Amino acid sequence: MSDSICISVSDHRGTSHYLINRFKKRYFFLGFIILLSMLSSAGYSIYSLYQQTILSDQQLNELNEQTEQLTASLYEENATNQALSQELSDKKAALALLTQRIDDVETILGLQSNDGEVLPLEQRIDSAAVSSAVRGTLFRLLPNGNPTPGIRMSSQYGVRIHPVTGRRKYHRGLDFAANIGTPIYAPADAVVEVVRPSKKKGSGNFLKLNHSMGFATTYSHMKKFNVKRGQFVRKGDLVGWTGNTGLSTGPHLHYEIRFLGRALNPRPFVEWTPENFDSLFEKEKTVQWAHLLEMFNNIVSMQVQLTHHVPESVAPIKTASNQEVAPDQRQL
């Protein structure tokens, strides 16, 4: 047996023969196996790297999606935070305005401490409740607003030439140019003190309402009454209709406000509203408003205290109007 291996290679130039002995043959196969192993290992490595690359791309895409979601969520959170911050700012501004209003009313009502010390929250809340209740009570019990809503004033309070006598005379009220039959409403809670019919004399059909704390209102030249003497009326109740009775040159309502019998200019009372609460106290100087407000404050404070100690059941007060009279005690 030959110890050599003959390898023939043919091309266009001819055939070439190569002899490889058996010892070299072994090294050749060993090298071939090593090369094949290296190629296999390299191929496996390349495949593994390719798979890792695909996996990395997938993970990167997932991370990008998560990043986009987190970015959108962060944007929404920022928008929500901005909205909440704006709402908080608005609430703070409203609270500051409310606090200022409370301080103003507390100053008027004497609820501020003398040394300027900040009152406890509970006490300030009670003060705010009292202040609000005081305002409501004032607008309920003191004359305010136009008794004939929507009707213009035709003659002011003060000295003028009387339209009938032609003489210079002090006009102690306001005239409203109301047509005959215009409704007249009570400007505050009251009791009807005077109902005086008169077609031709002076004030004509005349009505007087007695309000709280010495205030009274009068209505002249009316057409018709809707109340009787001694009747209690609430603010806004219909008390009658305008007319042209008495010493009058045309249909109108002559409206007066009196305090302890003294005529006051009704215009500040007519224009007095919750929005310009201080205007009446600034324009009308003849009334001691500080003492009046203090009295109202004490009344309302007592009412607030009573609301915290309401008994479970209160027996109705017996009066002559709600007591049942026995048949033998009734007048025949």
UniProtKB/TrEMBL annotation:
InterPro entries: Cell_wall_metabolism_enzyme, Dup_hybrid_motif, M23ase_b-sheet_dom. Residues 170-266 form the M23ase beta-sheet core domain. Keywords: Membrane, Signal, Transmembrane, Transmembrane helix. Pfam families: Peptidase_M23. It comes from the Bacteria. The chain crosses the membrane at residues 27-50. The keyword Ion transport does not apply. GO terms for molecular function: metalloendopeptidase activity. This is Membrane protein. The lineage of its organism: Bacteria, Pseudomonadati, Pseudomonadota, Gammaproteobacteria, Vibrionales.
